[in-house]
Structure formats: structure tokens, C-alpha cells
Fold these 4 entries.
Entry 1:
Amino acid sequence: MNVLLVNTYDKGGAANSCKRLHMGLLAKGITSNVLLRFKQNNWPKSLCFKQPQKKRAFLDKVANKAQRILRELKLYSDIDGSKRKHQHFLSQRNRNLEMFSFPNSDCDITQSEFYKEADIINLHWVANYLDYKTFFESNKKPVVWTLHDMNPFTGGEHYLEEFLGIDAAGYPIKRNLSDEEIKIGNENFGIKKEVLSKVSNLTVVTPSEWLAKEARESEVFKNVKVHCIPYGLDTSIYAPRDKKYSRDLFGIPEGKKVVLFVADSISNNRKGFVFLKRAFEQLSDSNLVLCAIGNKNTDLSSVENAYELGPIFDERLMSIAYSAADVFVIPSLMDNLPNTVLESLVCGTPVIGFPVGGIFDMIQDGENGFITEEISVNSLVETLQKFLENPSCFDNVSIRENAIKKYDQSVQSKKYIDLFNTILKSAENKI
């Protein structure tokens, strides 16, 4: 069996999940390759996609040279009208929202040698990479699409964010879509629905039951088989480390209770850091320390007992950060199956989160963490206080053992191999 995994980047949460599955497949002897749009890291068996160059006729070369000269003189733009409209739309969009992407690109994945050699295609996070129309009209191979967010079945949003901002009482503010957002979203949704309505060799996999439900109920995937296979990770890398050593490494004082927050950017609205920041300020406990990992944000400089650790890319160092914490807090307003929660649980560190999305799949309230009553600052304060009153109420060893049973890399890869084999066998029977 030859599997091709396709992902836009080789960094970020979705990329980490893609890589972990890839490594798990390789460990089980499966021929697995990864086709990336942008390649920065040296993953084994990975390749950066390059569009094959078409042979140009003489007149094409002349026209191309003329366009280049006019472009230098600023008398010509090679950005067509639709691209210009897309760029304008994105430039006007609120920067605190998750990204928005369109269902078209200049890439034709089916032209890659990796694609041609594969028996089955496993799409992952392919925004600004997969051209829906080109790929699904050309592709004849079985496709498994691993969803890392909602984008494949929305009009462009990666999460259909219901809230934007926080009010004075500590509750999220209902978001209102603009007429332009609705118009553009409907156009993109129409393209996806039309293209995918003609596809019969597609299977969808989601990491969380929440995303599986959303996919099944969507107009795009309502007639597609949807399976739920949680993410996996290397539990030898993510493991409990000595707490004193871990805190010394980050310069965290002894005798403190440490609350940890992790995100690519702590200014991301969906990640809800502002709720944790306000909750921490209300607690005003001198024995409490807040550590934030992610791109730095000056808003945190006003908070006492707060440590900005910056972005951390090394996985072993991340396991040390989880080990330094007493509790990991994920105040996301929407989320799938966050890798950060998996990582924390496998390191034996309990988690507190809002009652949203895949958080319900991961946190068993009172066993490996707490789920708040609602999305609000007050509810987060009450839950943090409940933990701080009895921080030893969780068994760290048990948290890790139960997490390994569900999220070890080998568990995930076996489920994918079984699914791939079932799909390929079914395809053979149809021939």
C-alpha cells in the first residue's frame, strides 16, 4: 500500500498532526509520502510540490517578455480580477478572526510523481493548495480527507466563529457577518457543493466527534462517509518530566501554582486568551503564576506573575513546559481536537476548558480536568478556584495512562491503516 499525505505547510497544528500520522504509518512499514505546498523542515519521505512547466511556444515567450516589461513600468498587472477581489476582501477582514481561504489555487496536485505512484490519497489541511475543481475532476484514486477544521465544508471560514470580542461582564460578543462576508461565502460554498456532489470516491475522517457531526450535517459532505479517528502523538517524546527541573529551566519560582496557556498566537480571538487573562486578574493570588507560550503580545506585560515564554517549536521542550505546569487551560471559543490538550494529558497534566467542540471528547470532567459551566470569565474563575482549592485532586499517572490508550501514535496509525485497506479492497471489488 502506497499512501500520499497532502498538506499545505510543514509547521503548525495541522502539520504536526499530519506528520505524526505519517511517522506512525512509516513505523508500521507502510509506504507513506508527504506532498507539501511549502516546505521548511526536513521530514522523511516529504517533497515540496512544483507545478510542471508547460512548454511555451515562441509567441507565448514574446508575450511573456512584453508583460514583464510592462509590469516593470507599472503599466500591467498579472493579477486577474477575481484574485484582486479576493485580496481586497481579505485585507478588509477582521485580523482577530481565523483565516479565510478560497477553493481555488494554481496547483494541480495530480501532476506530481508522488501522486501518480500512490494507491490512496490522504488530504489534510490543504487551504491555498488544493484546487477543488481541478483535483476532483482529474482524480481517479480513492481519497481520504482528514479534516483539521471546518473549512472544507464552509464558504471559506476555517471556523464558523459565533463570537468576536468580549463584553464588560466577561461574556463573548455575538458576531455579525457583513453582507460581503455572506456574499463571498455563498459563492465559495456553491463551488464546493457543486464539485463534491459529483465525487464518489471520497471518505472523510475527523479527529473529534463534534467535527464529525458538523461534517455529516453539512450540505457538502451529507452523502459522504464520515469516520472519527482521534489524533495520535509520540508518547515517548511527550512524557512527564521532573517538575523542579522543568521550572528551573523556565525560571519559574518554586512554591507557585502554575497555569499554562499555549497557542500559535495569544491574540487569536478563537483561542480565547482574553478570557483567561481577565480570570487570572480576578484571582489576584500572589502564589499563582501564568505562563503563556506563543507569539508575544504586549497585553500580558500588565499582568503580575505572568511569564511570556514565546513560541516553542521543540517537542521535548514543550513536554517540559507541560510538566512545569499544575494545570493547562484552553479557553477556546471553538475547537476541534487541540493537539495542546493531547500533549498536556499525555504529560499527566490536567486540563481546564470551555464546553465547546472536541473539548468534550478529551476532558472527562473531574477525572483529567474540568469543563466550565459556560463560556465566561466568571465561570473560568470559579473552575480555576475549584482546582486551586484542591490541586492534588487528580492522579497524574492515571491521566497519562488513559491518554496513551486513546492518543498513542500507534493507535491512530492502526485505525488509518485499517480504513485504507477497507477502502482499497472495496475499490478492487468494483473493478
Entry 2:
Amino acid sequence: MGTPAQELGIPEDAMRRLTGMRPGQPGSLFTSDLSVNEFLLVREAGFRPLGLVLGSSIYHVGLQIGKWSKNMELDTLSQAMYHARELAMTRMEAEAAALGADGIVGVRLDIDFKEFGSDLAEFVAIGTAVKADEAHSRTPDGFSWRNNKGQPFTSDLSGQDFWTLLQAGYAPLGMTMGSCVYHIAHQRFFQAIGNIGANVEIPQFTEALYDARELAMSRMQAEAEQLNAEGIVGVQLLSLPHRWGGHTTEFFAIGTAVRPIREDHQIATPALVLPLTD
């Protein structure tokens, strides 16, 4: 059997690159996609970059057609879009684990549909693996930066937001996400004609988009609950049409699940400052 990283599909070239970045190796150096300001703030927060880590999955997205006049989730497509991202994220986490990292900051998730196949898309996760500096640590005894699954934490927060989060006494657990690919019903001919020139809500469109967003949000929240998170910060709710046409779209929710560093933690309330008056 190979190493866990190799078992997850990490190529040999990537393993050689990671070996050259391991702390303590002669001539080792780190790579990072953090800006200079982000790099300095991550260092100020007590973490040192180990190296750029990535995961990739080229995925064939199956075919599923919605009913012309019915709002409905396209389960096959929802599962494909989620699983492909999960594979990329897992491989990125495996690279970070191979470096002995405590977490990954500044994570980006990208999708690129390939010209050599209309149903093929590459899902890429990339971020900077970091290690906590024990000499700089203000955490309680026995505290681990890894989450309850034993994995390095992942976060899509900027370096500035990451620093602020730690200063407030919170730690990232992991990126949580939810996906829903939804077919939005077409209007019937006489419905469309009747709306010409009128200010009027289209209930079936409203219900479809509301339901699709709710499904994506609830799935993201369920992932955070599995990590025993207190909450999710930096949430983005994206509408991604991809290549499915105007009546089918993906709603994708993503954010960083967080927990307090100390169980008795409370955020200090700043004193109220009143303006001076004559």
C-alpha cells in the first residue's frame, strides 16, 4: 500500500515537490499565493507558510433533463458538482497533511469546463498550507488546530480576515459547502402573454430560486454541524449557470466553519464613546 496521499491520487511529481518543502529538509523553501500583506498577517497570527497545496479532479458531469413546466432539483447534477469539489478538496488536504500542516488558508475553488469534452470539467482547490508556531501560540494546553476529523483546517478567508478571526478568539474548522442544481420551470404560453407590460411577480420563478438557495444553504449548515462548529463566517451564495442553459442553474453555498479557541471565550464589547459637546 502507498501513503495516504498517494492513495488519494496525489501524483508522484507532487509528492517530490512536497518533499522539497518539508521543514528541516536541506534547501527547503515555501511557496504561497498569499499577497505580501496577507503573508505578514498570517505570520503575525502565529502561523508560518509551508507551501502551496492543491487538489484537482477532472469529472464527467452526467446528463439529467428537467421537466419543461416543473420546478425540480436535478439530483444527478447536484451530486456530481458536490462530489467533484469534494475530491479536489480532499486531495488538497492530503498534500497539506503530507507537509505536517495544521491548516490551509486562502483556499480557492475553481471550475474550468474543458473544450475536449462538453461534459468534462476540472475542479481545482488551491491554498497555502500553514503550521502553527508553538512559541507564538496563545492557545490553551491540549488545543489542536486540526478539526474533529483529524484533518488540517481549511479556510477561504483572506489573510486579513484570518488574522482578525484569531484575534477575536476563534479558530477555523473547515470550509463547508452545499450545492443544488435546479431546473426552473418555463412559463406556459398564455402566462407569458398575460404578463406583457405588467409589473407582476412570477411565483413559480420566485419559489424555484428560493427553494434552490435554501437547499444549498441547509447542506452547507449540515456540514458545519458535523464539525461541531459554533457558526459559519464569510458565507458566499453563488448562482452558477455553467453550460446548462437559462432554466437550469447551480446554487452553491460556501463558508468557513469556526469554533471558539477557549470554551469560556467571550468577545469583549468595546466601550461606548460619546461625542464631545460644548
Entry 3:
Amino acid sequence: MKHSIVALAIMSVGLGAAQAQDVVKLGNAAPLTGTISHLGKDLENGSRMAVDAINAQGGADIGGKKVKFELIGEDDQADPRTGTTVAQRLVDAGVKGVIGHLNSGTSIPASRIYDQGGVPQISPASTNPKLTQQKFPGVFRTIANDVQQGGALGNFAVKTLSARKVAIIDDRTSYGQGLADETEKAVKAAGAQVVAREFTTDKATDFNAILTKIRATAPDVVFFGGMDAQAGPMLRQIKQLGINTQFLTGDGGCSPEMIKLAGDAINSNTYCSMAGLPLDKMPGGAKFRADYKARFNGEVQLYAPYAYDAAMAIVKAMEKAGSVEPAKYLPELKTINFEGVTGNVAFDAQGDIKEGAVTMYQFKDGAWLAL
């Protein structure tokens, strides 16, 4: 009888281990508190939709068995130091892949932690070129980078908006400054003049001093590299100061929240860019919008579709490799090629998305209209 109990105990431990292996942890890192928490939650929602879709089908077929997934969400607070702490926590938790971070300023330092821990990272939102230029083998992104986006913004300002004088402001983050730098290069290459280059922070709310300096230069276009939490109030203050100009910003401000924050200061002279196609023109966009609304009772902000595709890329690579272990599935991730929500998902040798599209938008009739 004693031997039977021992045998039963050993069998129970073995069964528990087998069951534990059938649930694989994936990490998600984004700002879930603070002024851009709406964007961070949007990113996490996209990752969660992918995990839920896989689990609803009974899991993924990996190495001859069904594997389900658990999403471990972490709040990086859009802060570089917190980002590295969160990254280490996810590595220590045994995640097999990470979707995130949102901000380039958190993704870049966190990527070193993931590299040291041997955990692949796919960012659905970080656009600074430096992220993939570090040449960490497990770092990817499902969204176009700032070289592509900044080039499109600069050309749009000069060739479409007929700007001869452009004022540029950035929030001094890796994302905002990086995008502003690339936009400045493109503006100058297109033959226009950068008449002012000012900076603020990603926590600021008062821009009157820098805008007063810019007003004296009479710019045709004011470009802001940063997020909607600053872009909206900035647009209000541009109106209050009587600066008659066109306003241009990147994907960080190309959100429904930007429209709310800007209030009556936003008009048809306001433009933004998004790295990617409009949601309605994405191959799986219409269904994704409907599913997102049904699941979360809200509208897609920006990055959810790219997070969904990032999570799916990890799982598809695991399926191809027949293993959830990063060392085994990473080679497959490098050659992955599938039709995602956002379009074709395939990475170049550096880890950037191939065929990264950029779309320009204009504010019209209360919403962003793709041009």
C-alpha cells in the first residue's frame, strides 16, 4: 500500500509537470498607467486578442501536442528605467517571447535585457531605427521605422503642404527626437528651410515659451515629434497664441485621443502619419475592428493590430519549429512569412518589417481621414 501511494505521488508530480509545459507564458510590456496608458492598454489588448484566439481553438500544435498560452502583462510606465526592471521581471518569470514595448525609449534599453535572457522581443510600436540597429538577433518590429516615416512626413510637408519654412519640436524621447531628426533631414532634402528646432518633454503641458519663439519665424508648418498627450494641448496653445500654421505630427499623435485633447483647436490644417495602412484597408482590419469592439467595448487606438500580428508571429514560429524554446524557434521567426491583420508579416535581416507602409491622415469631419 505504501509503495502504491509513493507511485501515485510520483505519477501526480509527473502529470503536473506535463500540464505545466502545456501552458506557455508570453510577456507584454507597455505603459498601462500615465498620460499614454490608453495607447499601452490598446497594445496589450491586441496581444490578448491573439492569445485568446489561439486558446479558443484549443491551443497551437507545437511538437505534436496542443499548447495554450498565458499573457503576462507588465506596466513599464513609458519610463526607460522601469522598462528594464519590467524586462528583467518577464525574463525571470520564464516568458518565451515578449510583445512590446510601446515607446522606443523603453524598448531600446529593455532589448538588452531580453537579449541577455535569450527571449525574443517584437515591438508593435517602437519606431526608432536604433532598436534593430543594435543587431540583437531576437529583436523585431511589426511596424515601419522612423527612417521610412520621417521621410514620408518631410516630403509631405514640402511637396503636399507646400511648406517653405518648417518649425520642428520634439519631446526629447528616443521616439520623438528620432522621428523629428528624420523629418528634418527629409524637409531639407526636399528644399525647404527648418526655421526653428525646439524641444520639450513627454511630461510637459505648457508650451507657450517655445511656441512664442516659433511664432516669430512665421512657419508654414509646425511639426511635433511626440505623443498625443502633448500634441493635443500644444495645438490648443498654438490657437491661443494666434499662430496661423499647418500642424503635422507622427503616429504618436494620430489617435482618437489626440482629437479629444485638442478640442476646438483641431481643424483641417492638422495632419498626422501612421506607420502602416488604415485599419479599414488592412487585410483583416474590418473583422479586427468588430472583434475588438465586441471584446473591449471600445475603438482601436493605434497599435493593437500590430501587437496581434506580433503575438501571432511568435506562435507561428513555434509551430514551424515544433518547440516553444526561443533557441529553437528563433531561426523560424527570422524567416516567418504570413498574412496578418496588418498585411504581410515578414522581417528583413535586421528585424524590421518588410514593406513597411506609411499613411498620411488629415483631420476632417471629426475624424482622421486617410489621404
Entry 4:
Amino acid sequence: MRVIAGTARRMNLKTPDGLDTRPTQDRIKETLFNIIQFDLMNKDVLDLFAGSGALGIEALSRGAARAVFCDSARQAILCIEENLQKTHFKEQSLVLSGDYNGAINSLMRKDYHFGLVFMDPPYGRELAEKALIRLKDKAFVSQDTLFVVEAGLQEDFSGMEEEGYSILREKIYKTNKHVFLRLKGEIG
């Protein structure tokens, strides 16, 4: 796995050992970043369920201002830190060890406003939906924040409409999909 474009272009990234992480394939990552290219320049990025940190690192390489990486697996945290050191993005980054609830609680005491939030949780456990519900009323996200969820093909995010999100688009691949969401505006 490597950084595709930007200042860290062609740098190889380490991935955590084991089957618990599914690094986003380069082809899919390139498609994703072509879609969101205008949503990341000079923005703060949150990479929840970060795994190797590849999505947040790609965003930094392409011009994001800062990134926060969160994962609950110790192996993933060590991998993220090694990848940040290698790509020289350590000073622009914060790495939080723990689950998404702990990360969200920690971020409420920090000075971030995220323009982009990546979520690539284990499929089929509704973790992305739970994280979206927890995030929706936090001061560090807004109607301008783009939420990008990588999910299994069978996962249905239509219930997020009732939770205050608009589904902007779904990009379907052979084995998974990306769901793009934003918070709905206030009515009235």
C-alpha cells in the first residue's frame, strides 16, 4: 500500500498484521480522492477506525491542514505512528488510542473543526451508524463537514436520514462501497 498523490507520493505505508484491518485498495483510494478532492484542502481531517492511517495520510499528502487518527487496536496505533514518521506528517497529526466513543469525548476538549471525516469500521456491526449518531451534535463538525463511510455492500444507511444526515451519494465497488453524507441544515 502506498500514498498515491501529493507531497508523500509513492511512499509505501505499513499495514497492521492480521485480518482485522482491510487496507483500502489503491484503485479504490484513488477513486475516493478524485471524488473528494475539493473537500480536503487546508481542512482538518478525522480518520476514525484508522487502521494503518492511509486515508488520513493521503489527505495530508494532498493538502489537508491537520489530521486526527483513532483506532482501538494497539497494533494499528503503532502502525499509524510509524507511517506518520515515515511521511513526515507527525507534527500535523494527533493519534488517539481507543474506541470511537473515547476519541469523540477527547476531541470535545480540543481545537479542531473537521471538514472531512473518514470511517472504515469493521463491516456489519453498525459502528459507523453509531459513530455518526454520536458525532452529529458535536461542535467540531458542521453542515460543511463531509462524512465518508466505507461499508459492506449490504449495509443500509437510509436510517441516517432520520438522524439528521443527508446521503449525498453511494459509490459501489465489487465488494464494498463508500457512502458520502452531510448533516442536514436547520429547518425554519
